[in-house]
Amino acid sequence: MALSGLDIYKLLPRTNCKKCGFQTCLAFAMQLAKKAVPVDKCPFVTPEVRATLEEASQPAIRLVEIGAGDKKIAVGNETVLFRHEEKFHHPTAIGLIVEDDVSAEDMDKALKEIALLDFERVGQRIKVDLIALREKSGKKEDFIRCLSAIKNSSLGLVLMPESAETLKGALEICGKDKPLVYCKDVSRLESFAELCQTYQTPLAFRASALDEFSSQTKKLLQQGKSDIVLDIPESHAAERLWQLTQLRRLAIKKNNRSLGFPTMAILEDSSPGEAVVLASGFIAKYASILLLKIRKPEYVLPLLTLRQNIFTDPQKPLQVEPNDYPVGAVGENSPVLVTTNFSLTYYTVLGEIESSRVPSHLICVDTEGMSVLTAWAAEKFNAQVVADALVKYKLDEKVKHKNLIIPGYVAMMSGELEEKSGWKILVGPREASSLPSYLKNIG
């Protein structure tokens, strides 16, 4: 359970010795409550108090890492129910399921399709994270054959075998890569857990109800197994959402440590369109891992985009580095445009300039990640800021004209900007989608 500053203060020596760097023990306790300083700064904390504080500081949802090296994916470590309370720390890991009852040619085709699910949006790379191999043939040798084909993928691995014998053979091949091991039937959980403990790999298992999750995780924790993922069984969408929400709520609000683990949802019996709709809900609440069978970009990209939007820090807008960005083969007659450094605004404007095929200078000014109208209202995007940017990036040395195109939504600052900058201000369109025709016409 999280401790308040006063709770922590009661555990401290309360000598106000200042050796921690603070004037009073209460001030130190308040910083400890905010996790702004380590408890080690106090030289007089007893081992018992240290253990209490460390236990209280653990996140409600345990951190679980899948994979090793460049393939490592972290899930869990969450502390809130709603993003605005703080932020969500680790995006939902999206994985695609392949099965072992296919030929080598079909497996190769599937891997090539998965490799293409790697995109760039607003300056960030968004892609799938995991590839899950399911045993469907019932033959250990088929599972091992397919594992040999996928283990060198750039994605993290999820192993979905039907027996401990198959799992042991698989872990002998890829155990060092720390795959996530999936156990669908709790009757096999003990044997799977022993192998996971031997190879130090995380373990996911399915249970029928919250009580069964709790009882099984308690057993695993007693055996020293803590890297656990809880798989919500397939059922009606509302039921799965309820279970995902209850697990999160019980862990965070009720401090139920036996349920404080990342969660997983598998979608395979739905049509592609339905799977995307369901997956969207599970990304929002509160699946840490999603496994799907769809591989077409038109279905996967919307999920990656949704995930990117949800898991940005609401207190820190996505932004690009302020600068003058030449678009195309610019010359001394190229148009000069200005916008804010909010990533979505910048990349939208950039894309439309590229579509116009008119080489241009795009000045991106520092508005602390705000969009055009928001920045203007907050006085972060005004005549002085833009005039200073023209000087800073030496636009008068890069073009022989002095024409600056500003967004149509801030046309009201054109007069003041002309006075401060000495440039002729051209009011561009309000919407970026109109830029291609606008740029072609002013040429």
Would you kindly provide a written description of the structure presented here, covering whatever features stand out?
The protein has 443 residues and is α/β, with parallel strands linked by helices. It folds into three domains: 5-57, Electron transport complex subunit B, putative Fe-S cluster (3-methyladenine DNA Glycosylase II, Chain A, domain 3); 64-310, TIM Barrel, CATH 3.20.20.20; 323-442, Rossmann fold (3-Layer(aba) Sandwich), CATH 3.40.50. The protein is 40% helix and 17% strand. The strands form four sheets. An eight-stranded parallel barrel has the order 3-6-7-8-9-10-11-12, surrounded by five helices. Helix 14 packs parallel to helix 16. The longest helix is centred in the middle third of the chain and has 17 residues, at 237-253.
Characterize this entry briefly.
This protein has helices spanning 5-11, 25-33, 47-57, 104-115, 140-150, 164-174, 189-199, 210-222, 237-253, 272-284, 297-310, 343-356, 372-377, 383-392, 395-398, 414-421, 435-442; strands at residues 64-66, 73-75, 93-99, 118-121, 124-127, 130-134, 156-160, 180-183, 203-206, 228-232, 263-267, 289-292, 323-327, 336-340, 360-365, 403-406, 424-427. By secondary structure, it is an alpha/beta fold. Helix 12 links the parallel strand 14 and strand 15.
